[in-house]
Amino acid sequence: MAIASAPRTLDSADRRYLSTVMTKAMLTEQEELSYARAWRLDGDQKAMQKLVTAYLRLVVATSTRFRNYGLPMPDLIQEGNIGLMLAVNRFDPERGVRFSTYASWWIRSSIQEYVLRNWSIVRSGTSAGQKALFFNLRWLRAKLERAGGGTLTLDNATRDEIATALKVSPNDVTNMAQRLSARDHSLNETVGGEEGGDAFQDFLVDPGPNPEEIVTTKMDGGQRHVWLTESLQELSPREQMIITERMLNEDKATLEELGGKLGVTKERVRQIETKAFRKLQSAVQRKARQAGEKIVPALEDASHLALA
């Protein structure tokens, strides 16, 4: 069952669509679990639609974070819808993770891929490091503005600091800064560019940040690498191997492959993986609390922490 496509033009119908989506109540943890099990085990279409409808607001909220890339908002929302459907179909309710957190990652990933395919700066010849630089737009611009007294100038010290943090060359930072300076769009911009028209912000309902939005923001940046690396050390060597092979490596190993390496059945590998993941999740959450995070992130997948 497919989600209805997001509106393709920004008219009164769009405003009603966005307003309706953003005011839908989110589900409790128990409701998520119940609907997810019904969909996964029984193929219950109504349960699946409950999950989708409740979290379309995450699609809209995430899409607005990519508004500065000059791409149509309806297209961003549609790509986010695809990510949401992927999350619904891949979510395992027995992993002890909130569906809302899991869906947030898939939504963001789907939109990022769309931007990478369609934005001229990163359409071709872009390395992983340059992509990281591209998607750290807000942080980069803030650094540049502070360094330049409110303008997008770049001194060598700041450039080198950013290059080191994102593992790119200083020239990459300079080039990206120059490109980004010409592509900033404001929420105050009118829809369609017509004078006196509705501003983009006029049709976005803002009920305040929800936990999923805050978690996504809090987890951005290099801190998640630190938490993950430290937490992995708390696992046994066998657990570390399974988590790395199953969740962190680009080419993920199958349960059967790992069973052969370890001399155990694939079901035993699954049991060890589940236990190790929960230990890893607990360790990361503990470190987040120790770091003063008021809202502690739940891991939807260890690979989420490995991305930056």
Spatial extent as radius of gyration: 21 Å
Total strands: the figure is 0
Helix/strand-derived class? Answer: mainly alpha
Q: State the end-to-end distance.
A: 33 Å
Any guess at the CATH architecture of the largest domain? Answer: Up-down Bundle
Short overview:
The protein has helices spanning 12-22, 29-42, 45-54, 56-64, 73-90, 99-118, 128-135, 137-147, 156-166, 170-180, 211-219, 223-232, 237-248, 255-262, 266-290, 302-306.
What does this protein structure show overall?
This protein has 3 domains: 12-118, Four Helix Bundle (Hemerythrin (Met), subunit A) (Up-down Bundle); 126-184; 221-306, Arc Repressor Mutant, subunit A. Helix content is 62%, strand content 0%. It has 16 helices and no strands. The longest helix is centred in the last third of the chain and has 25 residues, at 266-290. It is globular. The model is unreliable at 1-9, 121-125, 182-194, 196-222, 294-298 and 300-308 (pLDDT under 50).
